[in-house]
């Protein structure tokens, strides 16, 4: 049975490659912050160096604004905020979660209440929060000219002493980051499980229930097992299909299709459009089950049909809408007891 398992592995190698690439890409996204050139707090930043793609963590953002408001394509308000890095540096924010704005506004009100003596230091601490941000070079969409104009109109701000850093920061809360990483990690685990499942499914007797069921129905003798094994050890009639006057064997997705030719009622050619028009055959058994068996090309399809016409004359090898309708209604002799 090793030959048919090898054929099944060949058919799913594309899925294994897809899941492998997906797992690697998502791992890169998960590990990118830790592999970046910096992953630090505000206190570690050197404003005279290139801060592009620096990840900043454990920061309590002093968020101000909005310094500019516009409408997006959906007619909703799009607000631009900035963060005070220290007393003399500010940085614009982009892709800001609303949760961050809401938390910052609550914290700002709490600080004002603390200054006015309305709440205690312990109560103020309950409003503190930290965020994680990725710094990147600013561009025209960050509207730094509007930010400068906004700062110049703030009574408490000496705009000449405040430097707008030529960067913007994408900022999210730690909770969102953790959910994001959990989702990424979950997808990676799913990809790994899918790969392991594909290998296990195609490398074992899983998916060979038709063979097992047939053996049990025939007494499951050692001689029968050897006969079936010998059938699959023979060279394929055409690639991906085993056929002689007694048995037929093939692959339906990753399921091994097996049965006696005398139990086949109807076979006709089909085209797998999603597989670049690869040819195949649709096989109907007398018990009502049917399977799409993919072959390599239309020449192989015709070879199979010619063989069945020559040695299995009871099998219908042409398609018609009338036969299809009769088959669905069960009014044709195809559907009989197993």
Provide keyphrases for this structure.
single chain, 3-stranded antiparallel β-sheet, elongated, 338 residues, alpha+beta
Provide a compact summary of the structure:
By secondary structure, the chain is an alpha+beta fold. Helices cover 41% and strands 26% of the residues. Strand 8 and strand 9 form a beta hairpin.
Describe this structure in words.
- It is a single chain.
- This protein is of the alpha+beta class and about 350 residues long.
- About 40% of the residues lie in helices and about 25% in strands.
- The chain is built from nine helices and 13 strands.
- It has helices spanning about 1-35, 100-115, 120-125, 145-150, 175-200, 210-215, 220-235, 300-310, 320-330; strands at about 40, 55-60, 65-70, 75-85, 90-95, 130-135, 165-175, 240-245, 245-250, 255-260, 265-270, 280-285, 290-295.
- The strands form three sheets. It has a seven-stranded mixed β-sheet, with helices on both faces.
């Amino acid at each position: 049975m090793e030959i048919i398992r090898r054929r099944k592995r060949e058919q799913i190698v594309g899925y294994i490659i897809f899941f492998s690439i997906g797992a690697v890409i998502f791992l890169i996204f998960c590990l990118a912050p830790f592999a970046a050139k910096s992953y630090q707090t505000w206190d570690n930043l050197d404003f005279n160096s290139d801060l592009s793609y620096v990840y900043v963590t454990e920061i309590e953002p002093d968020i101000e604004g909005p310094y500019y408001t516009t409408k997006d394509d959906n007619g909703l308000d799009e607000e631009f905020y900035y963060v005070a890095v220290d007393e003399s540096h500010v940085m614009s924010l982009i892709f800001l979660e609303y949760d961050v704005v809401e938390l910052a506004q609550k914290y700002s009100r709490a600080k004002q209440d603390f200054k006015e003596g309305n709440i205690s230091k312990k109560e103020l601490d309950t409003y503190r929060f930290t965020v994680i941000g990725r710094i990147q070079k600013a561009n025209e969409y960050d509207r730094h000219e509007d930010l400068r104009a906004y700062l110049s109109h703030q009574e408490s701000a000496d705009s000449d002493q405040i430097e707008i850093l030529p960067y913007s920061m994408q900022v999210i809360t730690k909770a969102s980051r953790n959910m994001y990483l959990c989702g990424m990690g979950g997808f990676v685990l799913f990809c790994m499980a899918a790969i392991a499942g594909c290998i296990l499914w195609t490398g074992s007797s899983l998916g060979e229930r038709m063979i097992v069921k047939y053996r049990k129905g025939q007494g499951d003798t050692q001689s029968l097992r050897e006969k079936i094994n010998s059938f699959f050890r023979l060279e394929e009639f055409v690639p991906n299909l085993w056929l002689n006057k007694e048995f037929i064997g093939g692959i339906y997705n990753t399921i091994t299709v097996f049965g006696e030719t005398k139990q086949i009622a109807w076979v006709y050619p089909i085209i797998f459009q999603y597989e670049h028009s690869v040819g195949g055959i649709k096989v109907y058994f007398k018990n009502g089950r049917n399977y799409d068996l993919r072959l390599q090309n239309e020449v192989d399809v015709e070879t199979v049909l010619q063989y069945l016409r020559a040695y299995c004359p009871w099998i219908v090898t042409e398609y018609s809408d009338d036969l299809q309708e009769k088959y669905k209604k069960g009014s044709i002799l195809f559907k009989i007891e197993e």
